[in-house]
Write a structure and sequence with these properties.
Blueprint: H1 6-11, H2 18-24, E1 32-34, E2 40-42, H3 44-49, E3 57-63, H4 73-86, E4 91-95, H5 100-104, E5 112-113, E6 116-119, H6 121-125, H7 131-151, E7 158-163, E8 167-169, E9 179-181, E10 192-194, E11 196-198, H8 203-210, H9 214-222, E12 225-229, E13 234-236, H10 243-250, E14 257-261, E15 266-269, H11 284-293, E16 296-300, H12 305-320, E17 324-331, H13 333-339, H14 352-371, E18 376-381, H15 388-400, E19 405-408, H16 410-413, H17 419-431, H18 446-458, E20 462-465, H19 467-478, E21 486-489, E22 509-518, E23 523-528, E24 547-548, E25 554-555
Parallel strand pairs: 3-16, 3-17, 4-15, 4-16, 8-11, 17-18, 18-19, 20-22, 21-23
Antiparallel strand pairs: 1-2, 2-14, 5-6, 6-14, 7-12, 9-10, 12-13, 14-15, 22-23, 24-25
Helix pairs in contact: 4-17, 7-8, 7-10, 9-10, 13-14, 14-15
Amino acid sequence: MAPKSDIEIARAATMQPVGEIGAKLGIPADSLLHYGPYKAKLSADYIKSLQDKPDGKLILVTAITPTPAGEGKTTTSVGLGDGLNRIGKQTITCLREPSLGPCFGMKGGAAGGGYAQVVPMEDINLHFTGDMHAIGTAHNLLSALVDNHIYWGNELNIDARRVTWRRVLDMNERALRDIVTSLGGVPNGFPRQSGFDITVASEIMAIFCLARDMDDLEERLSNIVVGYTRDREPVRARDVKGHGPMTVLLRDALMPNLVQTLENNPAFIHGGPFANIAHGCNTVLATTTALKMADYVVTEAGFGADLGAEKFFDIKCRKAGLKPAAAVVVATVRALKMHGGVARGDLGEENVEAVRAGLENLGRHIGNIRKFGVPPVVAINQFIADTDAEMTVVREFCDSLEVNAYVCSHWANGGAGTEELATKVAEIADSGVADFKPLYGDDLPLWDKIRTVAQEIYGADDVSGDATVMNQIKQYEEQGFGKFPVCMAKTQYSFSANPDLKGAPSGFTVPVREVRLSAGAEFLVVICGAIMTMPGLPRVPAANSIHINDKGDVEGLF
């Protein structure tokens, strides 16, 4: 008999009413705003009532550089949260909301897998509680207000050639990357070049995920720079009266979403910026709220540690004052073999030497985590075809680096498959050995911040940028944005900007193509190589297999 698919496992789950999940955390029934029987938002008033409570321990789950073989970072996050609860540690798992772009594109859903999932899986992967819609609508409202202002006389003297605020769509749609708007004559406005990004790359998403509360949200929205005047002065969202209505659209969305794992443990799923473009972490509000309600909070950061973990540390933790107590680096034998040069079709065959060659990728990630003063632990996400000899090589390598490594079978066994890992993670978190510090200081010049990340985290020799890039950076520093951290946008498939360079490459230069200001989110997006802020669909998108079956159930969602 073939093993059950993720969606079949999720559909067979025995879920508890969300009120019962909330009760486990001491949440009063009237503090939950229900979206059906298994989803709810946590009220802003209740969140405020928690502010004087002590914080639990924050644990980050990150991973090696991703490959088509899969690493299982979200699955491991869920499994670890369940494992901690199994050993008696009250734990909340905090994850990002999936984007419809990858869901219908190449990656598929993002609710975990096997017996380490968050449910209701279909809802979470599709429209959920409408947060993504609210974020996209708020973004596009500001786009409309900017063009409307120009149409009705342009009192602010906005230079239409220097409007930097694009539009967004939560779908992979390469045809919309670069467009011309307002064609069709005088009634439609003034034609100009523009384009679309995916919603999860929007500055609104970044602001949403970094805002501490409603007041902070509105202040950040008001600071968004949408373009420049003919005198090259910045024009902000507040200048076109956009911050008020955007805040209204985001009011309900800002409340964290409470759901559950397959083992009926609580999980917050809230916010979802891309990690290869944006900063790749769930909301500050969900994380800080969970820390007030649980002994341990498990959260993830997108893609490999060079992207997600670096941004989690240098942007989210810096901005929110978070102090992570431990970090789990997820690896699979399959992915290590790909980094060691094995083709995807040959991953089922034992190849100890390829595993050994691929371990340089894991080693660099472990070293990088330590640069932030956070102790790492390795989770080896087990697959059926993994052999004892291959596992032994990984454990011996980790022993040589004085890092604990644990084989985890959470995909097949749920929280029971991570109890050994959970015990060690709790021990490290409770020991207080973590001494978190960002990679660079606020006062370092912007170009030096970019170079520091490239050299210290990616292993690059240097970074390069043409005169346009250097002038952009000079202008941002002159305008007072020099103290912002940098949010690197590059391929997730390599430490370098070349997705074909596997393992732990060296001797390369990271090419900076463009630098975009996110004044409300308070960081600079540094676009490297050929990375796109609006992805395209693959030749055979996941959407081709998604349909409603004869029973009225969704099929093909994974």
